[in-house]
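Incident log, structure service

09:12 report received: a user says their structure output differs between two submissions of the same chain.
09:20 pulled the input from the user's history:
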Amino acid sequence: MNMELWYTEKQTENHGITTKITETLYSEKTEFQQLDIINTKQFGRMLVLDGMVMTTDVDEFVYHEMIAHVALNTHPNPKKVLVVGGGDGGAIREIVKHPSVEKAVLAEIDGGVIEASKKFFPAIASELSGNPKVDVQVIDGIKHIHDHKGEYDVIMVDSTEPVGPAVGLFEKGFYQGIYDALKPDGIMVAQTESPWFNRDLIKRVFKDIKSIFPITRLYTCSIPTYPSGLWSFTIGSKQYDPLEVDASKIKDLNTKYYNAEVHYAAFKLPNFVAELTRD
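09:34 re-ran on a clean worker, output below:
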């Protein structure tokens, strides 16, 4: 008799997802969180932090393309970009596809995530080593933002769920800090969880960002291993509206999910999601 191994992520008190696994490849208690890497039948290798799925071989491209390219194609000339969190390197990999980018800074609090990703997710972490445009810093992103006023064209908040070390990345003061760290025409984007399970969070974050940035938009995409599969991002812009981007300027960046049509379509929200953006 073969015993089957399954991994279950309890996504809410009343709901979880489960997936068949073949082995645990790596397990470490870092300074900040429990880090596990498992091999799954359906999604390949899976990075799990504190029991929450962060990324997988099979569907990582959706999240990383959508957190990066919407903002980078909205800004006409992004040269200096910051990723807060995102220690797996996927957002950085997408950012450096843009020819205008001269410097991409990663501010990740947990060096353990960076090192494990380099070893077990080389395709995701491919630009974290050896790319002269990339500056990897093991540092608290909140502190980094505070110390770099007016420096960045685009800032991406690639955080875990709002627990543990990431709690401060969902607070209004943090978004004000981002505003101050951006240039006069800068753009921020943050991952803002599931419209099914995190409605209060999305509503609060949208309201907070809208109180700081003149242009604020919510967009969504489909990520099967994230809670509910429907995922949201919130963009705050000082000057440029993602809905007014010239489609002919959206570059072909060798992407699997993002394209010019998806750029606009992602902002078309179902009623139950759109209502989260209204006062």
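09:41 both user submissions now match this output. Likely a transient worker issue. Closing.
09:42 reviewer note: The helical segments are 60-74, 90-95, 111-120, 141-146, 172-181, 199-210, 260-265, 271-274. The longest strand covers residues 15-29.
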